[in-house]
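Page 42, continued from yesterday. The earlier attempt failed because a stray header line got pasted into the input along with the sequence. Redoing it now with the clean sequence only.
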Amino acid sequence: MNVHDIPPAKSPRRHSKRTRDPSRPFSRLIAGSTVVEAIGVLSILTIVGSVMGPAVHQQVRDAERKSEAKTAAT
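This time it went through. Structure tokens are written below.
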């Protein structure tokens, strides 16, 4: 029996490669859907805040004017 007749021993796999899900091509890029959801919620809150902010400030100004008018009347 010659040395070349012996089949090479299979080297053990260091890390098993999972089969990639074709529906999620960025599964490695995106750590988890929770991160994406958190970013989405924050962006929605930012948009809502930028829209609601001036209206809230106007209400605060109106309330201050009313209270100043009441104190001036007394």
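Notes: Helices lie at 33-73.
Reminder to self: strip header lines before submitting.
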